[in-house]
Amino acid sequence: MTDTQEVLTRVVAGRTVADSLQEAVAAGALRAQEDGTWLRPDIDGTPSNWVREHRDASRNCRFYMGVMFTHVYRKRQVPTGCATCFKVKVVPRTLRELVALRDVSHALPYTYKCGLDAGSAYTSGLYGGYFYRHGLDAARAAYGTIRAAVDQHPKLGSDVSVFIKRGCTEYEVHCGPSDHFTFAPDQAELEAAVFTHVRLEPSKPNNRVRVQQTLTHWIKEAYRLGDDSYLDFTGGVRLYPAAVRYAPDGGAR
């Protein structure tokens, strides 16, 4: 039996790895290739909910979350590849603060994403910024720098929440509190074996056009969410006319 056959016939979470990868293909998370491998596409569309900068090539979130957790582990097990992932999260309250945070993020040396939490199934709140670090000590070290940058920005400040979390929120939703995550001894070997058969399509760069498209999307979503700070970015012009309101005792107002 070849190495490829051995990996694909392993039973994980009640079914073979091959069946799990076929499910991922059907879901659009993977594309089968002629050479027998699978391509994990960059499915972050344009416009995107997020602006990202990848400054750490060792991170394979699309593989660990999009393939291993969702399909191979069937949301029953946190990937060991995510065991050391900690994030410093910033919680902007308005689009005005989100755009300010994007400027702060770009000036800091960390891998980050910032954008719309409102579009995430498991995350509460409207907006979020995430700075990715390997290990709790590294996250704690970055926290002071990020907290200071947020505090000092004239459109943010000390009232904006900043805290440290572990991994993706979806992991805690399905697998319990992150301080109780456990990992099987053979997980790392399994994930490495599956990864040899998966190729990651390069992420699209944050060029000026793409960032502007995302900002336009943020403006539309801010309007939908009732956040009038979007007017900062439209010259004070409403996206759509306000509805006429009628007084209950007669007339319009």
TrEMBL record:
Designated name of the protein: Uncharacterized protein
Lineage: Bacteria, Pseudomonadati, Pseudomonadota, Alphaproteobacteria, Rhodospirillales
Superkingdom, taxonomy of origin: Bacteria
